[in-house]
Design a protein that fits this description.
heterodimer; A: alpha/beta; nine-stranded mixed beta sheet; three-stranded antiparallel beta sheet; about 40% helix; globular; disordered C terminus; B: alpha+beta; five-stranded antiparallel beta sheet; 3 helices; about 25% strand
């Protein structure tokens, strides 16, 4: 997979032919057509033999009217409308951190092959967050300006220190009686330390639960080594069912209230996409996130065994998406979460504010991660880098650091600068620029600097390939059936505690 | 030495070298094209003469003559794309600055923006029958 060959088009391209009335556009060839995109989030497919006519400003008729309405010509350009669309697409700017990742402990009873969260053995209670620190975390989060506060519990296995989790939830709810923020709680857990008392607390307080489910039993258990007796899969699926029944017993809509799950794709998953989707459908899960493996953490050592190229992942992604669309056409609703995130950017006036795919990136400005000891990091991956001995992404501590210190922190500013697409070679010209985003931390991990080089970036290849696939499906969608399904995927029905686009942490 | 469609390329062991006329392609256009090839080959730019830029592409692994010739050809195509992008950017620079200033620094009356956003909402939502949950509709 290389972005240069994708950008090199077989088009007739005559730079000297550009007519002055042609507006700003980016372009590429997708699905046999020329895809035009612009800053307002508009896109248009041109037949290839029309591209030269477009450049010369000679397109007329209905297509001319449509191109003018979308802002691809200066003639007829509604500047107020274009400015409004851009403002809406970037409305996340200045919102402050809405995602607050709380690491209640580093202890974990799993040793997953691909784990990129720092973890310790179960006897390391010294890595538990104290209640005093938990209180300071809540106080700090409420000191940030975001209208929405989403406390996302991660680890380790966060339920191994349930007392801290419970304290954060109760203290935040109490504090919110006076603060009146939109408060959300989500727990990313492997479910294997769950019991009835914990479950009842979580259901009662509206904490949504997200677990890891890598697919059918043999695949799940192979990927997710459990330091315990029995089958991780059986335990996870059993608790998923119990939670789902508990929400139904409370009279809640099971289409909205159910355990969400994340899957991580290993080499063993590549040939089993359809089985994995079937497993999710069987469990009543409406959304699956086909996540590639990151060569971080444990995966660095196991890469030869479980890793793969980005071309292999994208082939898996496309084949599995074919199947998901087949199911949707049969009336079985399940969405692919990464696709839904991109489609929201492509097909609606909004941006989903997914902190890992924004420009500028959300690390430190839209999300913060609190380690068990109260240290504040830009994001969960930043905490992991610290665990490897590099404190570059540490921003301060819940005691002694103010929100203003974080907002002005050199690392936060550097991340913002390194993720402004308009200033990055390749991104600035990329046809997918309006719907894409940057992850400077990935660049830092692979290239040793925040800016990195797009053609060599695994994350760039992933985002580029996924968006190319989605636009191709739209280009080839002659009867509109695929677009109809895609538009449904962009509808987010509100559910207390939902994390529409969870971070990449493992459960 | 290879000459395909006027692109004269000096092919050596794992490397292709050709020259670009800077009166046709500006240096930043050449650099923009070169950047996109970083994952595929090592790129070296040189100036053998006034207004001439030499491009040396060195394969990172084994590469036969056909592969090297194709690499040079793709680079030449990318020069055209980069030149067009530059022309589009230059032609629209002022209006883009104006639109961005309006988007982020204007103080339009809120009512007009609210109206705009309402229009956008209506545009996206009407065909979706959004009040009807998906599971109760036809799909």
């Amino acid at each position: 997979m290389t972005i240069s060959t994708r950008l090199t088009t077989p088009l007739r391209v005559d730079p000297t032919a550009l007519a002055p009335e042609v507006g700003f556009f980016r372009y590429g060839v997708v699905g046999g057509k020329v895809l035009l995109t612009n800053e307002g989030g508009e896109f248009h497919f041109l037949e290839q033999d029309r591209f030269d006519t477009f450049l010369r400003g000679k397109i007329d008729g209905e297509e001319r009217v449509e191109l003018e309405r979308k802002g691809f010509f200066k003639t007829g350009l509604d500047i107020d409308r274009m400015a409004g669309r851009i403002r809406r697409k970037k409305s996340f700017l200045g919102g402050g951190p809405h995602l607050h990742i709380v690491v209640t402990t580093l202890r974990c009873n799993h040793a997953c092959k691909y784990c990129h969260a720092s973890r310790t053995d179960m006897d390391r209670v010294d890595t538990d967050m104290s209640l005093a620190t938990a209180r300071e975390v809540v106080e700090f989060a409420f000191g940030t300006p975001s209208r929405v506060l989403n406390f996302e519990f991660q680890g380790g296995e966060p339920t191994a220190n349930f007392a801290a989790l419970k304290f954060v939830v109760e203290h935040a709810l109490e504090k919110n009686r006076y603060e009146d923020r939109e408060l959300l709680f989500s727990l990313v857990t492997n479910l294997t330390l769950m019991d009835d008392e914990k479950m009842n607390f979580l259901v009662d307080k509206g904490v949504m639960v997200c677990t890891s489910l890598d697919g059918p039993e043999d695949l799940h258990n192979k990927n997710r080594g459990w330091i315990g007796k029995g089958s991780s899969y059986q335990t996870v699926s059993g608790w998923m069912e119990k939670f789902n029944q508990a929400w139904i017993a409370k009279g809640l809509d099971p289409n909205l209230f159910h355990v969400d799950a994340l899957m991580t794709c290993t080499r063993d998953s590549l040939s089993r996409g359809r089985e994995i989707v079937d497993e999710y459908v069987k469990r009543g899960i409406k959304s699956i996130h086909l996540r590639p493996l990151n060569p971080f953490g444990f995966a660095v050592n196991t890469w030869k065994q479980i890793g793969y190229t980005m071309e292999e992942f994208l082939a898996f992604y496309q084949d599995t998406l074919d199947y998901i669309l087949e199911l949707n056409q049969q009336g079985i609703f399940i969405q692919e979460r990464q696709a839904a995130m991109f489609l929201t950017k492509m097909l609606t006036p909004d941006d989903p504010n997914y902190t890992d795919c924004r420009s500028p990136a959300g690390s430190g400005s839209a999300q913060l991660a609190y380690n068990f000891d109260g240290s504040i990091y830009t994001c969960d991956e930043g905490r992991m880098v610290a665990h490897m001995g590099n404190d570059f992404f540490k921003l301060g501590h819940v005691t002694g650091t103010a929100w203003n210190d974080i907002a002005k922190h050199p690392t936060v500013r550097a991340i913002a600068v390194a993720s402004i697409q308009e200033a990055l070679p390749a991104c600035v010209d990329c046809v997918y620029k309006p719907t894409c985003g940057i992850q400077p931390l990935h660049n830092y991990m692979f290239d040793g600097d925040l800016f990195g080089q797009r053609p060599r970036s695994r994350k760039c290849q992933e985002f580029f390939g996924e968006q190319a696939d989605l636009y191709r499906r739209l280009a080839e969608d002659t009867d509109g059936r695929v677009e109809k399904i895609f538009r449904r995927w962009t509808i987010q029905r509100s559910r207390p505690g939902t994390i529409p686009y969870p971070t990449e942490g493992s459960a | 030495m290879s000459d395909v469609n006027g692109l004269t390329t000096d092919l050596g062991e794992r490397r292709a070298r050709f020259e670009v006329d800077e009166s046709i392609y500006a240096l930043d256009t050449i650099q923009g094209a070169a950047y996109l090839f970083l994952d595929r080959c090592y790129v070296f730019l040189d100036r053998p003469a006034d207004r001439r830029v030499a491009v040396l592409l060195k394969a990172k692994g084994d590469a036969d003559e056909a592969t090297l010739e194709a690499l040079a050809g793709e680079f030449a195509n990318e020069l055209l794309n980069q030149a067009l992008r530059k022309a589009v950017g230059a032609s629209n620079a002022k209006i883009r600055e104006f639109i961005l200033a309006k988007a982020f620094f204007s103080v339009d009356a809120p009512s007009s923006i609210d109206k705009l956003l309402a229009e956008l909402d209506a545009e996206e939502m009407e065909p979706l029958e959004i009040p009807v949950p998906w599971e109760k509709s036809d799909g």
